[in-house]
Amino acid sequence: MSLLIKNGRVITVSDDHVADIFVEGETISAIGKNLNMKADQVIDAGGKLVFPGGIDPHVHLDMPFMGTYSSDNYETGTRAALFGGTTTVIDFILQTQGKSLHSALEAWQGRSNGNALGDYSFHMAVTDFNDNTKNEIKEMIEKEGITSFKTFMAYKGALMIDDRQMVGLMNEVRKQGGMVTVHATNGDMIDFLVAKHRSENKLSPLYHYLSQPEITESEASGRFVDMAYHTGVTSYIVHLTCEGALNQVRDAAKRNQKVFVETCVQYLLLDASLYDKGFESAKWVMSPPLREKKDQESLWAGLNQGIVNIVGTDHCPFNWEQKKMGENDFSKIPNGHPGLEHRMELLYSEGVHKGKISLNKYVEVTSTNAAKVFGMFPKKGSIGIGSDADIVIFDPNEKHTLSAKTHHHRCDYSAYEGWQVTGKCKTVILRGKVAIDNGKAMIEKGYGKFIKRGRSSSAV
Ligand code: URP
Ligand code: ZN
Ligand code: ZN
Predict the structure, then answer these.
(1) pTM here?
(2) Which of 8, 336, 378, 452 is most exposed, with minimal Cβ within 10 Å?
(3) Does 287 contact ligand 1 (Cβ within 6 A)?
(4) In the chain, where are the structural domains located?
(5) Ligand 1 atom, smallest distance to 154 CA
């Protein structure tokens, strides 16, 4: 099969030009003006923007968590992602404490194999670092193509590791050429505040927010950054939300330490005033919680300064019945919210359309940097000859409204109900095949492939 995309305004990290793109099979084989190749399918992209397919490096699909499972599985989650222009996601495998990394990998393969529409890869969350786990790291990197190792400095008793384990893991991962990523919040401080609020009968979702003040994140981020400096491991902070944590990364840059930073679209657009809605606020109970306006400003600035490198979603949806597990106790509300489908359109509308970031920056933070940082570039994250033909054809003028009635997440509420958005993903191509066309899915589950990743590129 061949495909010719005509006259689109092609945006990459460094380019902005009107061109034709010729795709043969799964990859791009030519880019130029007025290409006159014969193709099986021709798409007129005149007046449209053409981006590399989005990469969301932070999703939780079909994940066992807090006594339930996140409500999007590989089929529904990757389908929703494609509707929103995200062609590749990276999901998190969670090691069960006391068990091996390989047994966790098998469990995740069991749920994902043959079920995804879009491409996907895995991070490995190491929740129990010991001599056995240590011996599995090399094989994860070299055989399985899982090159990033996630750590949790919170969720004690289930996912959290202590600093001794962290330093041990960092040393081994550095030796094997991988990367350590982190959920950087101080679990002990948070647990103290949760217990205090519960003992005072303060049980509404507001107290989820009040149990995780900014300092719990800035302290843990600084500690992680110092341990990464000490061990020399390539490091990455997931879902960074606030000015205090970002300043820790700024300080590290003064000693020429590079720490990759991801924020998520909700931390740029939503704020803690959403915790004043009684139990409805459970819709936005996530960790870390939404922050203040000043933190949003700091994150937008961080994007433009190149300190914040990637915008993900931390998509971890739960239906309302699941959220109601914490109706009488905020600490039992499953943490997470739906966002995967809306990342590209929201960031375009609120970022590019409103003049906060450039088109090139948009491509950088929604796609190319994730491909580079997570060892998939230039196969993914690029409109270049030889790259996978993962392409979004985007109408920058189409206005629409986000709603649970129309989204494709398997979640019965929207975190962005009623939001007016300018810009829509019209056609989404995955490895040379039209996956979404004008609001219709054109591929079936099973088309999505597991992507083995290489080592991180240190320059983004
Ligand atoms: O609230 C969140 N973020 N849920 C998913 C797990 C995590 O911490 O990323
Ligand atoms: Zn997290
Ligand atoms: Zn997460």
Answers:
(1) 0.98
(2) 452
(3) yes
(4) 52-373
(5) 8
